[in-house]
Amino acid sequence: MMSLSTKIISKINGVYIKVKNNKFILAVSITWFLIFIIEFTANFKLHSDLILKSLAQNISILDDKNDRYTDFLDYASAYFNKSASSNLYKSLLANNFKYNRENNIYELVQDKSIDTGALTSIKKLNNTKDHNEILNALELTPLFIQAKKLFPKSPWIYYSSENFIYIYPYVNSKEFKFSEEILKTEFHQNNLPQNNPNKTVIWTNPYFDLAGQGMMITKSKPIYVDNQFHGTSKIFYFIERVVITI
Description:
- The chain is of the alpha+beta class.
- 47% of the residues lie in helices and 20% in strands.
- It is globular.
């Protein structure tokens, strides 16, 4: 029979072994945790450097394009104020502006023989003012085509008002159309007379494109006719994505 002293010694040894094992597990856990912290810190610094480099490159590109974007928007504003004179766009508007019941929108039905953008509106052409504004927007088409060639990485160039949007290149109204959401965007709100009384060219903050093209920023300028605000002309720029894998 095991004596009392032997039992006590055995229990003490068992506790010692358990404590020793727990200390070993704790030491291993701390070691792995420190290794993880070191690896994470190294990767974080590496990817932070990549992000900063990517941002610096985008800023450099934007600085290079900034003046040309401004020149384009200034020219678009001046061009919009010209009297519409093209029979091509007058005929196109007269014959192809129709109500799309499926998408619940008025739109300019695409004529594939003519290079135009997509025009969608929430209202019918009820008066001369509405008709002339849309016609003036269509007259910007040659300018939009040239701008797209000059700025191939800009996904969209367009004019928008309180009632319609004209976007180039063409996009089907099933994918994108005028809506009241556009009137709530920064690039529309910031160009309203009360928010931009000096009628300056402005950049937006980064945002996700309503047409599903990813994150971008927009440079825009308000359009005035006879000192009355009509809408805004805009050109978009992609923000390059940096994918981080740790």
